[in-house]
Amino acid sequence: MIYLLKFGASFVLPPGIFFVCFWLLSLYLWRRKEVRGAAALFCVTGIFYLMSTSLVSSLLLGPLERVYDQPAEPAGDVIIMLGGGATADTPNMGELGNLCASPASRLLAAAELYGRLHVPVLVSGGQVYEDSGPEAVIARRELMRLGVPEEDILLEPDSLNTRQNAAFSGKILRERGLSHPILVTSAFHMERAVLNFEKEGFAVTAYPTDFRTGERQSFHYNKLMPSTGALEDSVTVLREKLRYGVTRYLE
Questions:
Q1: What is the mean pLDDT of the segment spanning 35-53?
Q2: Does residue 2 register a pLDDT over 90?
Q3: If you count DSSP H runs as helices and E runs as strands, how many of each does the chain have, helices first?
Q4: Has residue 245 got a pLDDT over 90?
Q5: CA 88 to CA 120: how far, in whole Å?
Q6: What is the predicted pLDDT for the residue at 93?
Q7: pLDDT for 160-202, tens place per residue?
Q8: What average pLDDT score do residues 110-120 get?
Q9: CA distances for 181 relative to 79, 88, 121, angstroms
Q10: Strand partners, 99
């Protein structure tokens, strides 16, 4: 009963309620003999609905997250952690600024790698928008709270996208004679991130983290519930594929 209630509620709240309205509108058009318009609206709404279900989003996201496996014994002379969003004025233990969910997961992985390897950690990411937080600066503070010494943290605070992450980080690596980076970023972002570092002449060891899907998938009818989170995952895959293509063939 609990699962059934959740399923029903998903079509009363957005985005589910919009799909219901559009399907009813397509039925209305069909009854008015506007068959082409009804069919087009029904099909477009259906595609939008499917992309908003975890059943479809996990099928799209899973293969992208597993382009690179997480190595059991990573080795390198520097750990690179890429930013992915931060707030500027949210409270954080008496200070201001927090990393968003994905970079926070990346930060934990970078800290764990440092504890194992004791090599420098390079945090890369600037202040993307006027009201967002300085990603690398906040990441350095959080790494220090987790026990990473300040002298072992390298700061790249200027990049605004993945291309600049690679270019600006590459400059720091060359200046310090570091050539075997371990790249830490979200699993869905790793394929494009590796490509950008390859364009800068670095063969990185990929260390994906922040996984959103598991390898083992089972069916439950609640995976057909529409949700904004599932839609975001589907859009993430499309965005990554588009940006990967632009990076590979146009940049």
A1: 97
A2: no
A3: 9, 7
A4: yes
A5: 26
A6: 93
A7: 999 999 999 999 999 999 999 999 999 999 999 999 999 999 9
A8: 98
A9: 6, 29, 10
A10: 86
For 85-96, how does the pLDDT look when each residue is reduced to its tens digit (9 = 90+)?
999 999 999 999
Distance CA 23, CA 182 (A): 49
Structure tokens at 19: 């799909």
Distance from chain centroid for Cα 45: 26
Angle at 180 between CA 214 and CA 202, to 5 degrees: 85
Rounded to the nearest 5 percent, the helix, strand and coil shares of the chain are: 55, 15, 30
Superfamily of domain 52-251: HUPs (3.40.50.620)
Long-range contacts of 5-14 (CB under 8 A, 24+ apart): 6/222, 6/225, 7/221, 7/222, 7/224, 7/225, 10/225, 10/226, 10/227, 11/226, 14/228
Using a cut of 0.90, tell me whether the model's pTM lies above it: yes
CA distances from 163 to 59, 128, 180, 216, 251 (A): 27, 13, 19, 33, 9
**What is the chain's alpha carbon radius of gyration, rounded to the nearest angstrom?**
22
Show me where the domains of the chain are located: 52-251
What's the CA gap between 180 and 194, in Å, rounded?
13
